Amino acid sequence: MFNSKITKKSLNDLRDNMLGHLDIEFISVEDGLIVATMPVDQRTKQPMGLLHGGASMVLAETLGSVGALTHAIDRETVPVGQEINANHIKSARNGIVTGFAKPIHIGKKSHVWEIKIYDDEDNLLCISRMTIALIRKK
Q: What are the TM regions of this chain, as residue ranges (predicted)?
């Protein structure tokens, strides 16, 4: 079921979108685990100098969507976010944050992924759960 044609290199080559704007970099794309990093800098901070919760949500949604894409049972479907929630536990002022996405449910028409984001010191910053609908390509 894992689509090994979608690699970290192929994903990291996609730079003319939100991934490039926030410098999100895929570290690992494997069966049951998607990992990516994002810098904490002027692009991802809120005015008080902390990692913006919205930037964490972008990283989480990116990881969940890629997870669903690589684990879609039917190759004729594409993932679209249906619902996402997050608990922001702690924040960061600088460095790199790393997100880890693991599936909770992989179905034919929907997936549920859990995404955890950590700072450089292994502190949990954010935990998110995302529901993804798989729709037919047009």
A: none
